[in-house]
Amino acid sequence: MEDVTYLLSKLLWFPAKPGNAALLLIAIGLALLWRGRRWGRWPALAGLGFFVALMALPLHQWVQAPLEDRFARPAAEPAHIDGIVVLGGAVEQNLTEARGIPALNGAAERMTEPVALLRRHPEARLVFTGGQGSLVHGGVTEADVAAALWRDLGVPADRLVLERQARNTWENATLTRQLVQPKPGETWLLVTSASHMPRAMGVFRRAGWTEITPWPVNYRTGSTFAAQTDASLPDRLREFEWSVREWVGLVAYHLLGRTDAVFPAP
């Protein structure tokens, strides 16, 4: 069942991605117009209108801000930290394999923030969870990239725990819990992108992580005029699609019983 769910999530998302869906509408509309169907202008205009609206309005900010604001980082850092769980999604394993050096993407704070935390808390363990999250991949896992990067940044091997099998957030939570077996009373931090934190917290709670503290990073929204407008169309599209994927994921995970609420709260 897990394999089927994983496969469907990848296959169905490709045509459902807003950018892809808009392009399909434009293509369908143009094909209809070419065949003399005047009503083809409506799907073509709908697809084109999406890109115009994305360029003229901060749609990417509007859909992502509620996700990022759901779980705030604690006002004070815990005095004692037993472990830091870092979710995959910030590394590019295929590029790493092709070029031979660790490659990061726009969520790089997932990888840098834990190192700073680790230096301030010598008692903590650093746990990375991530295997192969794409259908087409090579032989390098996300955990392999994390190990190489953190080794170069001076993280001692005896403080690092790697989970190499997880393909999605549900497997991140369940497989990591089996691996580290957190004990009652321990303080664990969960590090992931702020927009992903609602789904991640809902899943980790459902998987039995009763005492884990959200530590969001990689914020992409802001209230200033510059933050609202200073982004190119490709960047806006990427952020919009990421946010829509999170909203869809929240609904899907709740229907699958992987979260207790559609929009988990603090």
Automatic annotation (TrEMBL):
GO BP annotations, alphabetical order: Gram-negative-bacterium-type cell wall biogenesis; peptidoglycan metabolic process
Transmembrane domains' residue ranges: 12-33, 45-63
Keyword Membrane found: yes
Keywords on record: Membrane, Transmembrane, Transmembrane helix
CDD domains hit by this protein: YdcF-like
Pfam entry (one): DUF218
Domain DUF218, first and last residues per copy: 82-249
Isomerase listed as a keyword: no
Domain of life: Bacteria
GO CC, any one term: plasma membrane
PANTHER family, alphabetized: ENVELOPE BIOGENESIS FACTOR ELYC, INNER MEMBRANE PROTEIN, PROBABLE PERMEASE
Name of the protein in question: Uncharacterized SAM-binding protein YcdF, DUF218 family
Organism: Belnapia rosea
Upper classification of the organism: Bacteria, Pseudomonadati, Pseudomonadota, Alphaproteobacteria, Acetobacterales
